[in-house]
Amino acid sequence: MKNWKLIISAVLCLVIDQMAIAQQEPQFTQYFDNTLFVNPAYAGSRGVMNMTAIHREQWAGFDGRPRSTTFSLHSPLKYESVGIGLTMVNDQLGPITQRMVYGDFSYSLKFKNGDRKLSFGLKGGVNMISVGTSQLVTTVDNDPKLIQNIRNSVNPNFGFGMYYHSPRFFVGFSSPRILEQSYGGVSSTNIERRHYFGIIGGVIKMNPDWKLRPTGQIKITEGAPVSIDASLTAIFKDKFWFGGMYRLDAAYGIFTQFVVNDQFKIGIASDFGTQALKNYNSGTFEMMLSYDFNFKKKGIRSPRYF
Question: For residue 247, what pLDDT is reported?
Fold first, then answer.
């Protein structure tokens, strides 16, 4: 056990000193229900106020494992071309805790037939990071990069996004945090790195009861391998959703979701790594809750698939 603590400590030291290489944005198996986190142009796109929360326990059984929770709230305004939103994240990896609070704004251009929109979005807020270096086992006394804790070091930031969608198709591009800034002033390599996201997906009607929803996401970050996620969901009678996902050279997973009523959806997911670390943990687990504040009685609201 002592050897494992030394290995984990060494990995965490590397993460602190070289954030350019580390994974800074938390990743999710149910990434397709977390679009506002990466793309502010998504704000208000569901047509009603929506609240979504996802909690992720990564590498269960591994000491210091990543734990991530996201919360988003967004809605169109009375002038429906404008949407606003709020995204919050709590992300923990060993002694490192990162919190993000961002406001989102979108403006949509409608096409002539009315069911297609092109949205532009802006995101602004702060990242806060804390590092409890006293939790680390060090091999060098008085290492200048590890002798002091970092408490709620705050970096303001902003991002942008574009999002095109119709009832059956969507595609988007975004960079949620554009500024590259240092945390704590301890190391010149300990900085936020700019991430670029591309998302795409759609819904294919197979028959009156069954639909398929393929989705994909690509993430590009300087100093890190390109990350590609793909998923395929089978939807039965717009109530039962189940499918699988694959993250290139990293993980594969399964998920299921249930639409309780026109407003409430719950989901669970699990993924398993494809690299050597898979031998030392019991997999990754997620829980998702989504609620649409849809209280209008007039007409029948069409199901939303993204």
Answer: 94
| Secondary structure class of 4 (helix, strand, coil) | helix
- Which of the two residues, 243 and 186, has the higher pLDDT score? 243
DSSP 30: T
In whole angstroms, give the CA distance from residue 300 to residue 260: 17
Residues 6+ apart with CB under 8 A from 211: 203, 204, 205, 234, 235, 238, 305
> What span, in angstroms and rounded, lies between the C-alpha atoms of 109 and 117?
6
Structure tokens at 79: 């002038």
Which one-letter DSSP state was computed for residue 62? S
User: What's the token pair of residue 305?
Assistant: 């698939």
φ, ψ for residue 35 (rounded to 5)?
-65, -35
Q: What is the signed CA dihedral for 213, 218, 45, 74, rounded to 10 degrees? A: 120
Task: Tell me: pLDDT of 48 over 70.
Answer: yes
Q: Is residue 65 very low, low, confident or very high in pLDDT (cuts 50, 70, 90)?
A: confident
Residue 99: strand pairing partners: 90, 128
Contact (CB, 8 A) for 105 and 84: yes
